Amino acid sequence: MKIVFWILGGLVLLYLNFAVIPTLIAFFCTYKGLSGEDLDRTNEGDLSNSQYVPYLPRIRAGIEWYRRITPEMTTVHTESYDGLKLAGHYYDVGHRKTAIFFHGYHTTIPNNFGVVSQDLLALGFNLLFVDQRGFGESEGKACCFGLKEQYDVLSWCEYTDRELHAEEILVFGVSMGGATVAYSSDKIVNPKVKALVDDCGFTCVHDLQVLTGKRRRVPVWLMMPLVRVFAKLFHGIDITYSTEKALKNAKRPMLFIHGTEDIAVPFSWGQKNIDACGSEKETLIVENAGHAVAYIASGDEGKDKLKQFVIKYFNAE
Fold it and tell me: What is the largest CA-CA distance in the chain?
């Protein structure tokens, strides 16, 4: 009996080690430095990662530009549907249009948007950089990978209309932020919101966790049942819910951006989102580009695509 007891105890410890701990990391590991001084973090954790090296000059130039305009920003707040105080950083240059940006998981705002936000500024947009719940200056202790954050998109759209008096709104998300935007695509009804951009967003939190677990050599058959139960019991979310279901009923035109060599969010997932989208849609598919750098890698092609997208769905200044 003692041998059986020790065997069972060992199996329980293995389950805790491979399932419970990764679960807690996945749903509670947020990063409060997004709006602070640690501006060199990326989705992959380090700008020295090989997929970023070719684009380092533009990425770092975007970071420096963001640093320069930071003193001119106003920190603004809105309340989430579940009572959290959410923070954003507003750069107002007097335009009628405003772009709202939703960052990715464990990255920073300037890494994700330091380049594209400059292009949107030139196209006549004020800029609102959102700290997603649990990150930066926003309240919240858990990251739900877009499943709760999608409703924060709605809150920020209403705030931008009501308090910032934007006449037209663009919603732009990268990586987890892209999935957040995709999840919200069937719920946005504010007439001021004219279009959405999903840059390398995933399709399903469950599939994302499976992919991450496999790469870390975690036995996903042990981990995922607990992840699903944990997410439902403690966060009230269903991690099997797919962005594709929301996109089928998308209410606004969408631009999808993705790199074909994205290893964090495979391009095949981006293609599923594109195929599922039931609204007007356009794409910027960038050959050989990695995760969250497709727009930067696209150069003038991407800049022109974004410009034409804005011209098509927004009024001229």
Answer: 79
Burial of 241 (0-12, 13-18, 19+ CB in 10 A): middle
Asked whether 163 and 171 are in contact (CB, 8 A), the reply is no
pLDDT (tens digit, 9 = 90+) per residue, 39-98?
Answer: 444 443 445 566 778 888 999 999 999 999 999 999 999 999 999 999 999 999 999 999
Q: Which residues, 6+ apart, have CB-to-CB distance to 83 below 8 Å?
A: none
| Contacts of residue 44, Cβ cutoff 8 Å, sequence gap at least 6 | 51, 52, 264, 291
Beta pairing, strands 74-79 & 85-91: antiparallel
Angle at alpha carbon of residue 41, lines to 40 and 46, rounded to 5°: 95
- The domains found in the chain, sorted by start residue, are 1-30+207-239 (no CATH), 33-204+241-313 (3.40.50.1820)
**H-type helices in 90-147, by residue range?**
109-113, 116-122
Distance CA 62, CA 107 (A): 14
128 - beta bridge partners?
Answer: 90, 100
Classify residue 65 by its DSSP letter: H
Q: Is the dihedral of CA 246, 247, 251, 256 positive or negative?
A: positive
Q: Of 291, 308, 312, whose CA–CA distance to 107 is shortest?
A: 291
- Quickly tell me which residue has 């090989």 as its tokens: 50
Separation of alpha carbons 159 and 85, rounded Å: 13
Tell me the pairing of strands 254-259 and 281-286: parallel
C-beta contacts of 304-307 below 8 A and 24+ residues apart: 305/255, 306/116, 306/119, 306/120, 306/123, 306/255, 307/119, 307/123
pLDDT tens digit string along 194-234?
999 999 999 999 998 888 878 777 777 777 888 888 888 88
What pTM did the predictor assign? Answer: 0.90
